[in-house]
Amino acid sequence: MITAGRAIQLVVVVAVLSAWRPAPAIATPEAPPPAAAPTDSIIASTDDPWLDAADAVADTVTVTAPRLKVSELVRLIGERMRRDERRLGAYAVTAISRTEIFHDDRADTLGHRTVISEASRLSVDRDGERRSARLRRAEREYRDGKLEKDELDTDIGREWSEEAGDLAMDMPFLLTSGDRYSYEILERRLIGDRLVFAIGFEPRNSFSPGIAGTVWIDHGDLVIRRMEGRLVGPSPAPLFVADVPRFTWKQRQEGDLWVSDEFEAEIVLRKLPLLPSRVTARVRLRDWDIGGAGAGVGP
Question: Average pLDDT of 230-248?
Answer without folding.
Answer: 89
